[in-house]
Amino acid sequence: MRLITKSDTKTRRIAAVGMYDGVHPGHRFLVDYLRLEAGSRGLTPAVVTFSRHPLALVRPLEAPALLTSLEDRVNMLGEAGAEDIILLSFNESLRRMTAHDFLEMLHRRYGIDALVLGFNNRFGHDMVEGLAQYRLIGEKAGVEVIPAPEYRGGSAPVSSSAIRRCLMEGNPSEAARLLGRPYTLRGKVVDGNHIGRTIGYPTANIEPTEPRALVPKNGVYAARVVTPDGVRRPAMVNIGYRPTVSAENIPQPDRRVSVEAHIFDFTGYIYDEELTVEFTAYLRPERRFDSTGKLRSQLADDEKHARKLLAPKK
C-alpha cells in the first residue's frame, strides 16, 4: 500500500472517492469491486480520500465525530485491498470544484483513468445527479465512470452515520454488527485524580489520540483493552463526568468527558502508553452515588456483569 500526497502520474489508476470513515463492510465491498474492475482493465486500484471530513470546512458545527483516525483509516483501506491511497486536503479550492474539474484534476495529477462511482455517491460543487451525467462529464475529462453495485451483505444497509448513531445511543453491539468488528478508541494514558485506586478500582485515564474521535454515550461499558504488550484484556470503562468524585456535579460546556478503564487482573505502569479500547456492551448510565462506599458496591456489581459478558464462550 502506498500513500500518495503529491501529484503522481507514473501509475495508471482506477479509483473510488470517499471519506471512508470507519472502513465498514460497505466500504470494503466497494474496494473489492474496485479491485475486480482494476484487474480487467490493467489498472492499479486506488482510493481517493480526505485528510479531514468535508463538513469540517463546509458546515463545521455539523461535522461528525470520527470513527477512525486518519492513520487507522489509511491502514484499514490498505488492508481492504487498496494499493494506492490518494490523500487530498479538503480546502476551499477543492470545495469549489465542479464534477468535471474534479475528475479532470484526478486524471491530470494522479493518473486516474477510471472512477468507480459508489452507490448513492455524489461529488462536485455543481451537485450533479445521475450516472448518465457523471459518465458524460467523465468522457470530457478523460475518465471512464463505472457504477458500483449496491452492497447487500449481512450488515446492509450500513453507513458511517448509522454506526455513529448506535454509539451515541449506547448500543455498541449493533455498532459492531454494522462495522464488522468492535468499535475501538485509541488513546494515551494520562494522569488522573487517583480516586479509583483508593476504593479498589484503579483506572487508566485515557486521552483519545484523535481529537475528533467519537466518544460513545456516557455510561459504564464492558470492554476489552489492548495493553502495550499487545494483549487484549477484559475491562470495564466509564465515560462521563465522574459525578460522585467531581467537585461539580452538573456538566458545564467547558468540562471534558473522561474515559476511564479498569482493566481486570492487571497491574503495570502504563502512564504515557497507548491503549486501545474495544467496546462490547453498555452496562448502565453514569450516575451519582452518595458515598464512595456505595460507588464501590456498584462497581463490584458492574465487574461481575462485565466479566460474565466478556467470558469466553463455551
Walk me through this protein's architecture:
With 314 residues, the protein is an alpha/beta fold. It contains ten helices and twelve strands. The chain has helices at residues 25-41, 55-58, 70-80, 92-95, 99-110, 131-141, 160-168, 172-179, 195-198, 292-310, and strands at 2-4, 13-17, 44-50, 84-88, 112-117, 144-147, 184-190, 204-208, 219-226, 232-240, 258-263, 274-284. The strands form two sheets. The protein has a six-stranded parallel sheet, with helices on both faces. It has a six-stranded antiparallel beta barrel with strand order 7-8-11-10-9-12. It is elongated and about 70 Å long. Residues 247-254 have low confidence and may be disordered.
In short:
The protein is of the alpha/beta class and 314 residues long. The protein is 32% helix and 24% strand.
Any key phrases for this structure?
single chain, alpha/beta, 314 residues, 12 strands, 10 helices
Mean pLDDT score: 92
Principal-axes geometry comes out as: elongated
What is the helix tally? Answer: 10
Quickly give the structural class.
alpha/beta
Distance between the termini: 39 Å
Task: Estimate the helix proportion, in percent.
Answer: 25-40%
Rg over CA atoms: 23 Å
Unreliable segments of 5+ consecutive residues: 247-254
Write the H/E string, N to C.
Answer: EEHEHHEHHEHEHHEHEEEEEH
* DSSP strand content: 15-25%
Q: Please list the strands of the largest sheet in the order they lie side by side.
A: 1-4-3-2-5-6
Give me the count of strands: 12
The largest pleated sheet is described as: 6 strands, parallel
